[in-house]
Design goal:
mainly alpha
């Protein structure tokens, strides 16, 4: 009974980690932007969902229809206005990665400061579908199941879009070799900008879903950034299946350790698994070794 309960909780948490990490995988794997302000997008979306629900009575699921397009537009503007100059001056992708780390590190504090001014340092939450659901004699909140379901749907939609459409083929081509992609008439800058914006929309979706069952405040964005980085590196940069598997491993590990060992050791267990995978497969579970 306890095993099933912990497994369900771990799957929900792992699904959220995987969804949040998918966006970073797009931003880094395609646009080559290492976005250290990534976790702040989760918290901004969580605050937006909280405000829509408490002030306007708007269901968080319906709120996704407002928050996702807004997140896409904001991230497009960030890429165009703040990151495109870095792309233009970078002669190598490695240089762009370093420059983007410095730029987004500053952006992190700007966004975090604005949230602190607007909401302070208090923790926020709201009760949406916090009703018990019994599955095989195990009780779990309905909002967690709903969040897991939407995370799976969004992840599957992204996978199908990238593997079954011409646009998805162009995105994967830019991720593999932007120079070769440009030689076959793919607009690399447009694809990179769209991928960065889509990654921002995905992280916003994760923020909305997480806000339905977790408390949050303006200071915890860095936690989601670190978890997303771990998932992306563990799974393999640019690999969607790797993101899913690594996210589930992370979620199940944290839940099992918290249930049977000590909640204070969840972070240590996370990094222990992360380091073990890096030692065995430095390219990640599903990544390809560099040649």
């Amino acid at each position: 009974m306890i095993l099933l309960e912990a497994t369900l909780a771990g799957l929900v948490l792992g699904g959220m980690y995987a969804l949040v990490a998918l966006g970073l995988n797009l931003q880094y794997g395609v646009a080559r932007i290492m976005n250290l302000a990534y976790g702040e997008g989760v918290i901004v979306a969580a605050f937006a969902a909280w405000w829509l629900y408490t002030a306007g009575g708007i269901n968080p699921i319906f709120g996704l229809a407002l928050i996702l397009p807004a997140a896409f537009a904001v991230n497009w503007l960030i890429y165009r206005l703040a990151l495109t100059p870095l792309v233009r001056r970078a002669k190598l992708r490695e240089q762009l990665e370093v420059d983007s780390i410095l730029a987004t590190f500053g952006l992190l504090f700007v966004v975090q400061g604005l949230m602190l001014v607007a909401f302070g340092g208090a923790y926020y939450s709201y009760g949406f579908l916090s009703v018990p659901v019994v599955i095989a004699d195990v009780t779990i909140a309905a909002n967690r199941l709903l969040a897991l379901g939407f995370a799976l749907v969004l992840g599957l939609a992204l996978y199908l879009a990238l593997t079954r459409t011409r646009i998805g083929t162009a995105v994967r081509a830019v991720a593999v070799d932007p120079v070769a992609a440009g030689l076959v008439a793919i607009d690399v800058r447009q694809v990179a900008a769209a991928s960065f914006a889509l990654g921002g929309a995905l992280v916003a979706a994760g923020g909305v879903l997480v806000s339905m069952f977790l408390t949050f405040n303006a200071n915890i964005g860095v936690v989601f950034t670190m978890k997303a980085l771990i998932v992306v590196i563990m799974g393999g940069v640019g690999n969607l299946l790797g993101c899913l598997v690594a996210g589930l491993i992370l979620g199940l590990t944290e839940t099992f350790v918290a249930t049977w060992v000590d909640p204070g050791l969840t972070l240590a267990a996370t990094y222990a698994i992360f380091l073990a995978i890096l030692l065995v497969r430095p390219q990640g579970l599903f990544g390809r070794a560099a040649r």
